[in-house]
Amino acid sequence: MENEKTRPIPLKDDNYTHNINRSNERSLDRRSFMKTMVGAAGLFAASTLPWGALAAKELMGSSSKTFPAQKIANLSDIKPGDAIEFNYPGEHDSALFVYVKEKEYKAYQNACTHLRCPVFWDRDEKELLCPCHHGKFDIATGKPLAGPPRRPLPEIVLQEKDGAVYAVGVKRYEEQL
Hints:
By secondary structure, the protein is of the alpha+beta class. It is 20% helix and 29% strand. The chain contains 2 helices and 10 strands; from the N terminus they run αββββββββββα.
C-alpha cells in the first residue's frame, strides 16, 4: 500500500534536486572548502619556516656578534658640544657622535625610532631632536623625552684609545631598557 512517504515524487514536483549535477556535486561543499583552507594554511606556514629560522638565528647569535672598530675622531680636533655624523656599523648606517662635555661622549644610530627620520643634536638644549614630528631624545640614555617615539635610539658602544674615539659595537635593544 502506498502512503505519503513511500509514494515517488512526480518529476514535475521535484524542485529541489533537478539542478544538481551528480559528478560535480561535492566540489564546493564545506568539507572540500575546509580541506583547501587547511592545505593553503599549511603551505603558507611551511613557506615561512626558512625566514623564521633566519630570524631566530639572528636573535640568538646577535649577543656574540662582533663589530669592527672604527675611528670617529681625535679628541683634540673637537670641542665639547660638537657633533659628528659618521656611518657605523655599515656604510649605509648613519650614526651621530656627540662630545657632550669633557670626558663624556655618546653615539647613537641617527634614525628616529618612530619613522627613521634623521636625528640632530641641539647644542643649546642638549637634546637629540627629530624634526619630522618634534621628537626629543635624552643624550645620556637615548630614551625618548617627547613626541611620538616610544623606543630609545640604538646606542653605539664607544672606546677611547690614544686620544681618539672609536666605535666598537652596537648595544642590543634589550640592553638599553
